[in-house]
Amino acid sequence: MAQGYTGAVLAGGASRRFGQDKALYPYRGKPLLLWVLESLGGAGERFIVAGRPYAFGVPVHPDLLPGGLGPLVGLYTALHHARFPWVAVAAVDLPFLSREYWDFLYGEAQALGVPALVPLGPKGLPEPLMGFYRKELEEGARRALLEGQRDLQGFLEAVGAGFLPYEEALRRFGPGLFLNANRPGDLP
């Protein structure tokens, strides 16, 4: 059954290190983008934020502000287009996200009452492109962008985000959860 949140896959990067469009890179029989989109199968709505069309049966929204402003503009665009109060935001290069992960994080975000909830990664730093954000953060993200901010971690601090401890995420979902495919060789 679909949950009351929006699922957004950010696929607007240039894939420079990857050497080709990583969203379309075939991994274990399907494109990376499809792995992430399927992990968001419990969302009440799903879409892709990208500057190019993708034919995966969901809407594709280009960044609302031009100029290659990075993932913060992708987050802003996702928040703007979302119909639900919570938005799951996932990078296109995280093939080991799962519906169970999103369902768990959604429940935690609601229970904690924080404006955003993201896991801490292996180095203790926030992983902002595998988290939940309240739609009400849209105006703050827009304002931050217009003021020249591009740093998602700084934005998380500014809004008082909550963080899922790395050890808990690791225990529940395994180390593959954090695999970020910056190059084809990063994929097992």
State the shape. globular
- Class of secondary structure makeup: alpha/beta
Poorly predicted runs: none
Calculate Rg over CA atoms. 15 Å
- Count of strand segments: 9
Q: What kind of sheet is the major sheet?
A: 7 strands, mixed
Explain this structure to me?
- 31% of the residues lie in helices and 19% in strands.
- The chain is of the alpha/beta class.
- The chain has a 7-stranded mixed beta sheet, with helices on both faces. A two-stranded antiparallel sheet has the order 2-3.
- Strand 2 and strand 3 form a beta hairpin.
- The radius of gyration is 15 Å and the shape is globular.
- The termini are far apart.
Put the structure in a nutshell.
With 188 residues, the chain is of the alpha/beta class.
What's the layout of helices and strands?
Layout: E1 5-10, E2 26-27, E3 30-31, H1 32-39, E4 45-49, E5 60-61, H2 71-81, E6 86-91, H3 99-112, E7 116-119, E8 130-134, H4 138-146, H5 152-159, E9 162-164, H6 166-173
Parallel strand pairs: 1-4, 1-6, 4-5, 7-9
Antiparallel strand pairs: 2-3, 6-8, 7-8
Helix pairs in contact: 2-4
